[in-house]
Task: structure prediction
Amino acid sequence: MADKHAGPPPGLHLYTRDGFLGKMAVAIRPYEVYEYTSVTGPHAPHQVALDRVACADASDAAALPTVVATSRNGVTLSVSRRTQPTPFLFRNTEADEVHFVQEGTFRYVTDFGTLEAGPGDFVWLGRTITYDVHPTGDAGLRIIVETPEMLDLNPPAPFGMVNFGRDVKRPAVTPPAEDGPRELWLKSFDGITRFTTVHDPVATKVIVDGTPPAWSLNLAAIATLSYAHGGPPAQFLQTPSTDLMFYTLSSRPPEGRPPQHHNADYDELIFYVEGPGAYGAIHEPARLAWVPKGVTHWGPEEHVPEGYLAWLLESRGTMRLTEAGAAAAVLMETGSFGPQAS
Ligand SMILES: [Fe+2]
Result:
């Protein structure tokens, strides 16, 4: 016998403010209202094949990650295919960074120690930390989010969703490389400023106080959150103004699709990482489903027995694809997040 609580009744339509945290209204309509037959203009849902982005740093070690989308609040989303170590040290003077490792393994050497990262890891690098990146495997694909605000781990409770003691890795101090001058790039809103240093600025003897402004955390280690009969996920990472909120959106109980949704204040960016299970029409790794705010959608079933890994980025600032992002994007239908039939 079907569970009367499994999923919404036909035509259910949820309107929410402040993502999933604010006031809401629910209507039952005589039919579903998420479908469309044509769309023109910039505010249209797209699926982006992040592994098909033409990345400058795939062949040029001195190139920066390729920007695929930007927001009105100064957030950028980039993709990197770096295969060689960065030939410079890097400081982002106006943004915190989160790097999601989709493929490959990397060593981040920072001025507070060394972090090793692999598939499924989020790596947070606080504003103006100094670092370089060394690929330690063959292929590499990283998704990089930059925000002018400070990102902080802030799950609903200090334990439960994230096991901080076990899963949040901090840099480890390692013996410094041979000293010598380094090229140091500082990124600001208007470009790169290049210094040549006298000594190696990341050489570290010991951390004597405080908490290094970097960590790594694997997506699979972040517990999904759900209520007995459905309900929204909860963020584990956010900025103080909640301009950005990060969630795991990996497969989770209970059965039944979420209601049709109309997100008044946030663009939804869903990053499908890998299966084996599909998320709606998405089954290829490294796919981004972007639903701009105010575009009605009906999210696919999330209770997929085979399981899949995915994460959600909510952005209060309206996003737009760059030329490089649009070149890897197709118009998306908003029921199973596959390509829109033309
Ligand atoms: Fe939604």
Remarks:
- The chain has a mean pLDDT of 96.
- Residues 56 and 115 are 24 Å apart (CA to CA).
